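User: quick one
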Amino acid sequence: MSETVRDGAPPPPRGRLRTVAARFARHRPAMAGLAALAALVLFAFAGPLLWTWDHTVSGEIPSSAPPGPEHPLGTTSAGNDVLGQLMRGMQQTLKVAFTVTVLATVVGSVWGAVAGYFRGWVDAVLMRAVDVLLIVPLLVVVAAVGGNVRGGTTWYGVALVIAAFAWTPISRVVRGVVLSLREQEFVEAARAAGASHARIVFRHLLPNAAGPIIVAATLLIAVAILVEAAMSFLGFGIQAPDVSLGLMVQHAKTAAFTRPWLFYPPGLAIVLIALVINFIGDGLRDALDPRQAMVRS
Amino acid sequence: MTAEEAAVEAVSDPVAGSRPAREGAPVLEIEDLHVSFPTEDGRVRAVRGVSYRVHRGEALGIVGESGSGKSVASLAVMGLLPRGAEVRGAARVLGEQVLHLPDEELSRVRGERIAMIFQDPLTSLNPVYTVGRQIAEAVRAHRAVSERKALERAVELLGAVGIPRPEERVRSYPHELSGGMRQRVVIAIAMANDPDVMIADEPTTALDVTVQAQVLEALEAARRHTGAALVLITHDLGVVAGHVDRVAVMYAGRVVEEGPVDAVFSRPRMPYTLGLLGSRPRLDEERVRRLAPISGAPPTLLAPPPGCPFAPRCPMAEDRCTAEEPPLRSVGAGRTAACHFSERLEEDGADTLFGRPDRAPPSTAPPAPDGAAPLLSAKGLVKHFPVRSKGVVRRRIGDVHAVCGVSLDLREHETLALVGESGCGKSTTARLLLRLLTPDAGTVEFEGADIAGLPRARLRRLRQDMQIVFQDPFASLDPRMTVAEIIAEPLRIHGLYRERGGAADVQRLLRTVGLGPEHGARYPHEFSGGQRQRIGIARALALRPRTLILDEPVSALDVSIQAGVVNLLEDLQEEFGLAYLFVSHDLSVVRHIADRVAVMYLGKVVESGPADRLFTSPTHPYTQTLVSAIPLPDPRKERRRQRILVTGDVPSPSSPPSGCRFRTRCPKFADTLSPAEQSRCIEEEPPLDPWAAGHLTACHYAEERALWSEGP
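Assistant: Done. Structure below.
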């Protein structure tokens, strides 16, 4: 029987994923980051099941109380429990941030790789589209349509809108890398062996561009969190009574000195998520690159 | 005023040219030099106790493969090592210790007493100043002369290194000059202050052979003018053979043999030297036997083993060799060698010592008779690359005429070599044959079927019959794939992986190219250049092709590694009956491996024919100059050879000359043809016409010329 691998990325041989996983496991900061991320996810998604208060206003909650035994992170002036809000906010933020990152990275990488690989008119058309998206400011668009489109108030609506704008920088990075990679002899060797364009793009070009892609993707997570917060402020993102970390910071920005318990928990949570993602990204990049001898030993 | 006159005087009154005998104190003396670098993996001991002396007017060649420490030693003398390098020992210039001199004092020595010529002439010149100004700057750095006087001297120096019309050239910027001219400018700068020693580090490695000959001439001229001693560092035994008096062979950071060049080349006293000489194919040798390769690879210098560093690769190694490192000791008049058993080498040649495998009798490998239908046939191939203007619009402002009407036939079981200098279109032709590029005109037939207009699906089927091996063993393997994945990829693409036996077939391929099955799980970066090239060959063989296109397959490899790969290619040809199209600029390898040769110049085939005929009695002036420019690793022959030097560099392929494309550099056109005959060369393009059976030439005034007629 003959195995027909026509297009697309064939499944990598079994040993490969395992070696990457083993190398990742040897990367200490990355493993610490992975553990911390797991803790954050657990806190955000399982926490609400265990804690008394959710993110909504309740008459039983005192207004503007500093942290105490009843409310470990204090309360808001309207009567929300900040810990309950933090868990819900982190949940929403993580969902938005990850969806944006995955969508934008996939679309941006493929878009950029195709443009860089084919060059010529394909490149011209694809990259002019990127230029157009880049010069339209996301927040102005959001401000203009925000009042009319209420569908954007769900977390996936927000994620889709952000992702639609956020993939462009990744496509430019990947195009640049692919432009130089495509001139390498191993790409020519694949062509000489009869490889299809799809195979060259997915099997040779994108894996070799993994380093810059992962760096760009980890940066994107932080951007997604901040953009989501800004959109909420403009009335388009996640709206009260629902919360996100960005929205919490936004609301508490005037209270940073008078009621610090409102500002610091969501602020620190954002920093923590970004940091943890960066560590994991570093580990992934090294694990995917067989030339990283330091990781192997 | 007197100082200026003296400065100019020094040029116009050259020191008498003959090679003076060794006398007096040495001008450069290096004693027990050690250099080591810290790296992430530990300390690399790049130079381990090197000593040599060079006397006034003498030329010393330092030969070694990459990583032998040959360049590091001279950089240490110049104080140009990177920070962190640890240097011990002594280096004396005219008796003055220069190691560890503060930079300011060293600058006085550099340029004034020692001058250095680097490999890459493009990066060693400043692109924003004219070459005249750069030479003048070198003059004025050490002498109080006026700008005008310094420029006059620059003109004089440019003339001395053989640059035509030096008065105009002083005003040129580096980018306006070709590679060979730039290297001559660098030599002129080195000469500027009449140094006592010139150190040339691979001065011709980046250049084409005909240009290499010119630059070596310029170096000779520089020596005659200044009377300076020359240290010529190179990996090319041929370059050393004709241009130095003594030669030092380096291996693993040490000098392993030193002596007069004739004696070392004819009777080496160190197995490594013998191996180097035996593993290099020679242009003046009939193609009869396999090369004698040196097995293994040079040791890493991180933690050199206690014994002789060559012992693991040495066929006569004994227990003593792995226990005790042999010192460099005297082995005859003016000769030293670092081998416990060098006396045993009195009689042995490389063949007996390294076991040169005998070529199978020619009857098993018959090149198909001329009448047989060719396997692969190209007719009138044309490929132009557009040159576009910079900016948004990118108008087409011209064409690079890469390939202009090339016709070739490749028969079954035959090796056809495509030779020429860089930019002659040989690699483009190879890619046109494979349809990696689409020709602008012309046809390519494989077994009688035209493939130029083949649709993608049919083309893919064809890929099973034609495969390619690339020049660069580092760029041609995907760094993200394991070796087994790389070799299996062509099979997977064609859906043959399971059918052919999957992993077992990959292991068979690995064994075929001389690697072990356990190598499959590793990544390309873990292999040496020679091993990587074998992986590339295994990938090309995976589909069991009938034709291999070899694009400079051994050019990037060290000499001792090359022989093994060349032998492998020959074995594979015999085993599988492959047809090879061997693209190369290295005529010595071509002479060894090819049945027929086609010589290309500026996108056209100028001469083609059986290899033996082409190398012994070429008819086209370009082939003649090409063959005579290849240095031979034999000092006696090299000195006695008749040389046909060409002037200038290859013209730009975007505006080739009218008529015969070689006429601008042709020695025959310039020296022997009458004006009437010349006008034919200018106006009429010579067709590629038969000269003798199977021998075609494209010259109006073709004439056989025996290049190997030696004096008694």
